[in-house]
Amino acid sequence: MTEHLLDELAWRGLISQTTGDDELRAALDEGPITLYCGFDPTAPSLHIGNLVQILTVRRFQLAGHKPLMLVGGATGLIGDPKMAGERTLNPVEVVHAWVERIRGQIEPFMSFEGENAARMVNNYEWTKDMSAIELLRDVGKYFRLGTMIAKDTVARRLHSDEGISYTEFSYQVMQGMDYLELYRRYGCTLQTGGSDQWGNLTSGTELTRKAEGVSVHALSTPLITKADGTKFGKTESGTVWLDAAMTSPYAFYQFWLNQADADVVNYIKVFTFLTREEIEALEVKVAEEPFRREAQRTLAWEVTTLVHGEAAAQGAVDASQALFGRGELGSLDESTLAGCAQELGGAEVPAGTTIVDALVAAGIVDSKSAARRAVQEGGAYVNNERVDDPELALGSDHALAGGWVVVRRGKKSVGIVRPVA
Hints:
single chain; alpha/beta; Rossmann fold; Tyrosyl-Transfer RNA Synthetase; Structural Genomics Hypothetical 15.5 Kd Protein In mrcA-pckA Intergenic Region, Chain A; six-stranded mixed sheet; five-stranded mixed sheet; 13 strands; 48% helix
């Protein structure tokens, strides 16, 4: 017997709250439903937190349900209230350009064919011609101020020094209106989102109930954290983006590869479509042979393939091996090496820089004396070739694609520099 979708989501750790477990289960059992999830264009790219929502909706589609993927051309102009500080309002033309970029990032994850084909929607379509009078009379009358003020983010901002603008306070009205409009247009009866969006999700269920007299559903996923409770999805260089130009496939792969044993199985449940049996087998390997890091390599491969494609994932694997002397650096293309430089903190150095100065510039050693010692002890490498001359100057004959040169001390300390005239 096939496992119920809600039971699978619960096993994967993807349910934080629902408006009613039994009611939602019954609705799913009655036949395919239409659901939606919204993404605001507040940056030129989505990040891996957004990926949780995309993949959750994909699981619904694989179970036979019909997804609406909403990009908020209107709500993106307003801004969902943050816990602290007012959002900067981006120019209209910038937001509209970001809408198209984000649309392009979402589409590859969904199927737009068949009886449960996905549909992309933009809330700018039904708000751009709405007058202030229409908004207040037709939508605003259903909202109660006490309920709006009680929302967690709003309450916190109201009691802060900076307060909250009417613009951001009204965001929940805009998002609630989306649910009502999608119910009227497409019969949408479920909205999904992160647990930090719960107040906005229930604004939509309440508005639809009051305006149409029907009960619709909401489901939130937990915010993903590390086992120690700290924030997930950040690196020293910042947010992990889905856009390859903002987070290279190499850096993306490395992010997943570096996850701790305590976290990796949970992340595999959330971010991959591996079966329960496959995941449980990896869980055993984490417990019995953690040094092999098979679960981490599986996670990195699966998620990088999902987001960037198999070729990019293989390129990241090849680069990772080559950087540490287990592959051919000359086979790496310029974009892959640029991604390595982004991740490793690649430095530009003057043409003719010595290996000693390059090791220091790459951040591998703290001083020239330490660099000289590494060379003298036979532990310094240029493009995986051992160097025995501390005065070796890096020249054009050392340049890899894009002019990069890989320097290494020992087996694990790797850096990358680019000599420039």
